[in-house]
Amino acid sequence: QVQLVESGGGLVQAGGSLRLSCATSGSIFSFNRMGWYRQAPGKQRELVAAVISGGIPDYVDSVKGRFTISRDGAKNTVYLQMNSLKPEDTAVYYCNGQRRIYGVIRDYWGQGTQVTVSS
User: Fold this and answer.
1) Which residues lie across from 52 on neighbouring strands?
2) Which of 24, 42, 75, 116 is the most exposed place for a label (fewest CB within 10 A)?
3) What residues does 61 pair with on adjacent strands?
């Protein structure tokens, strides 16, 4: 059973920082891609940042220069460092691990962690 467990969300003032963590039950390198999504009330879930094994991280335009995704293989943990936070970053953030097996993509999700940025 694959498990992804997020932590690190909370309430922060605009301009502040938070670091989200996503611990996986297996090796993070067993996933073809690791990423962070977010979903604000009344909006669709959107991909915020992702990194493909051996690839360069990619970010949605609204967080470029402010957020950084990173991986620690020894700890089987993926991080999302969020700086210069804005009220519009308020959302539930979800960790995602994606595997491609025989051409079939399977997604694994964490339970989500709330990030609230006050103005």
Assistant:
1) 33
2) 42
3) none
